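Sharing a chain and its predicted structure for anyone who wants a worked example. Both blocks are below, sequence first, tokens second.
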Amino acid sequence: MTFIGLALALLIGLSLGMLGGGGSILTVPIFVYVVGIDPKPAIAMSLAVVSATAAVGALSHWREGNVSLRTAAFFAPFAMAGTYGGARLSEYFSGAAQLTLFAVVMLAASVLMLRGRRETEGVAGQASASRLLAVGLLGLAVGVLTGLVGVGGGFLIVPALVLLARVPMKLAVGTSLLVIALNAASGFWGYLGLVEVRWGFMAGFTAVAIAGILAGTRLVRHVPAAALRRAFGYFLIAMALLILWQNRGVFLTREARAPADRAVREVAAVAPTDARPRTPRVGASG
């Protein structure tokens, strides 16, 4: 399964290179359902992968002049604090609850992917103090979500930068990648000591994904990006629904779980009696 996981890392990289984002959201389900890693370590390790792949993308955008270091310097501390807090907060969530929240986020991301990216430009001028406060609070909220479910949150960061911070779209995309790289790294740091990390596999997975990104950027000219984005969006919906179904126990009420709990208690009560060795009777001495 490890080999299959590494092969899928290449596909994640290719999708990132050709679509410009979204592919890393598959890291958690690959870690959990293909490689067999428990949900909490999978989310932690996915943050390291997201951080590294976003850093590669941010570097590419920075070379083209599409990264605002000033905006990132304002937004990133809020997001990093939220991500670290979300990682520490994950200790109070079950793995199934985190996967369920992850599936909901995946559904939201897939809907936005199917709608396509709107090239809305930020309005020229300085953002007001209230708008900057809203950007900071949203960065904090996105950070908590990132720490809990292991996704970058670019589909929330980009609109915040465009609509609230008045950053042009191209600049917002590149800047969001830098923010994602920083806050995902902060989240991974928050998980250290809470989960066991498979360092060797994680490093290999990340390296293969980055190689896929570099290959994808070369292939993008030969692939219809719109059709690929739609297909990927529908695939994400199917994957999210599957994760929700497999973790449906999170939604069951106490009454719905009562019959199963009662059956477990009955089996536990009967098993020790049946399993207890019988002591032979000792006849009275005459």
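Comments welcome. The chain has eleven helices and no strands.
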